[in-house]
Amino acid sequence: MKKRILGFWEIWNMSFGFLGIQFGFALQGGFMSRIFQSMGAHEEDIPILWIAAPMTGLIVQPIIGYLSDKTWHPRWGRRRPYFLIGAILSSLALFFVPHSSALWMAAGFLWILDASINISMEPFRALVADKLDESQRSYGFVVQTLVIGIGTWVASNLPWAISQLGVSDSAPLGEVPMSVKVAFAIGAFVFLLSILYTVFTTDEYPPEDMEAFLKEKAEKKNTFIKDIVENIGKMPTTMKKLGLIQFFSWFAFFTMWSLANPALTEHVFEAPAPVESEYNMSLEADKAAYNVKNTAFQKASNRVGSYMGVYGLSSMAFALLLTVYTSRRRINRKYTHMVSLILGGIGFLSMYYVPSPEWLIVSFSLIGLSWGSILSMPYAMLSSSVDPNKMGVIMGLFNMFIVIPQIIAAIGGVNITYKLIGESSINAMTVAGISLVLAGLLNFLITEKKAIY
């Protein structure tokens, strides 16, 4: 079926829900490690506490993709019911996670939060392919990236901005500062509101042959595992090659999300999290000393979060440039992705050498170029290489190449690789840089013309 060419605002409306999704991801990515450290977690324990995020994605996204492919409701369509369910659950989890009273509880809420975000996110990827003609695919994914960039920058700056309004950054031992709690509450509200906006402003195409759709749905009612295995076995060659690129790309970004806060607060801001065991909290002098160091760490963490927001701003600018360009002509997706990833790798590598915190703007700006490309180019390349009737399940399976590297990183990959260089956690950013440069070079494997243009 030849699909209608959509205007910018129609594409904007169908992408706007990603603002809320990215609020969730940015708050999680920028501040979960801070929450874990505030509750007493040591640096080397942080990656394993993060394992909830990729594990839930590995399980949830293929299931949601498969189910949404086989869903149709006359009022709510195919993908929108999943947007709404995920938004409600994510908003609740976002609100409660900083109120956790124990480390295990915070890790548990991360499981719930990430599972809920994934319920909303996967169908958004499929919706772009559902709604847009192939000539607009790059444009659609780039607009989606523009919205993501806005969400990343705003959400990453929330704790800092709230602190500037006078909300406290101090907190007793084992508790999260009020500035973070307020930021997560705002994020919960924005998440739900933005998803509702897309749900009520966007319609969906019904199946081309409703009778055949219903017949196939009835015949394959209990064939989920069989269909998943079959689709893995018939994975397109382009998808396999992109999977290798995705592996090293997402290993790098998981390393950033889990260890950028401890690495940069220590190496750049010289304000590491105080170690509880080094203080006798029954002594007033030790308690006061702990509070001074903890407040310095929390304020440094605010600034790390703000600097991390720069990569959202940079990806937004990059996406805006690509939006203007791809609205008129096609681009070479392969070389766009290659150059962007290599520049992001240079951004990570530069963190070891920054002479002062302000230089992190340059580092994260370069990382933002790679982030903008990661969120658009692989999906544009993949969507041109798969059966439109299986778009949801294929996008869900493609998520394996996102979550598997993160699981490997979480269970020891990050700690093992960066400690080959040295004990300081800033070396984790060097590992991320090397990984991203390698991902960029692997784009030479992409040779299918339909995927490239």
Automatic annotation (TrEMBL):
Transmembrane segments: 12-36, 48-68, 80-97, 103-121, 141-162, 182-200, 242-260, 304-323, 335-353, 359-381, 393-414, 426-446
InterPro entries: MFS, MFS_dom, MFS_trans_sf
Membrane topology value: Multi-pass membrane protein
Major subcellular location class: membrane
Domain of life: Bacteria
Span of domain Major facilitator superfamily (MFS) profile: 238-453
Subcellular location: Membrane
Cited PROSITE patterns: MFS
Entry keywords, A to Z: Membrane, Transmembrane, Transmembrane helix, Transport
Pfam families (UniProt xref): MFS_1 (PF07690)
Protein's UniProt keywords contain Transport: yes
Keyword Acyltransferase: no
PANTHER family: SOLUTE CARRIER FAMILY 45 MEMBER 3 ISOFORM X1, SUGAR TRANSPORTER
Protein name: MFS transporter
Organism: Pseudotenacibaculum haliotis
